[in-house]
Amino acid sequence: MEPVPGRRWQKVLYERQPFPDNYVDQRFLEELRKNVHARRYRYRAVVFQSGAVVQQLCSVCVFVVTWWYMDAGTLSPQGLFGAALVSSLLGYVLFDAVDGGAGRRESGRPRWADLKSTLVFAAFTYGFSPVLKTLTESISTDTIYAMSALMLLGHLIFFDYGANAAIVSSTLSLNMAIFASVCLASRLPRSLHAFVMVTFAMQIFALWPMLQKKLKAQTPRCYVGVTVLFALAALAGLATVSSVGAVLFASLLLAVSCLCPYCLICLQLHKDNIHGPWDEAEIKEDLSRFLM
Q1: Which residues are registered as beta bridge partners of 275?
Q2: Following DSSP, what letter does each residue of 92-133 receive, concatenated?
Q3: Is the overall model pTM greater than 0.85, yes or no?
């Protein structure tokens, strides 16, 4: 159907017009806009943000290497518990020193509450360590290793890296990591090994990311330095177990921290989102008063 001469098309729905439903005139593309909400990234900023992913990959690597040493009998549970205790005390002091205690004053949480929570967790974990040791006796070792690998992979997928996405779930991520630690701890020689392993998992998967998040917000340069040192320590520990694994893990870290940000920057140049009058209507007015 051709437009009627002398009659101008109007973009309205409440008036009958002598035009087909899919008709638009030449003014339709005048309102075309491209990449209205597109973000322009800088390479250094993206590399800095990738540090959170590197940190979690290194945390999983350190945890697995530590478990391997305990399973082989090279690392004693007493030595690991002492090292974890000293590092936890240093991290606790550093956590308050980074912001001068401002976060603690805002939360109003006393130090006694932190000590009580630590003692309760340690007491319950130690009391249930014999149960943890015998929890998976009826399950084959291959199945335990497969379950642990899947749980650690899920921990990395659902971890909160700072992105506002529906897949992010800090609770699920932590639970999957602790479940993997319980599975691996059940294959250690004694119940004391299981207790120390689960405690170490809580420190590296729950407490360590909290400290890193505060360092990232308060002292970015210190955060970069700690990330590099932690990555080197994880690579050094993995190299004592498998040199090939250390090379592959180093390649993974370089790809995550250098290659992936570069690919993101390159792909941003080809982004072509279009916006115009065909977009769905967005209600920006506060309609909460109608819910009363």
Answers
A1: 33
A2: HHHHHHHTTTHHHHHHT--HHHHHHHHHHHHHHHHHHHHHHH
A3: no
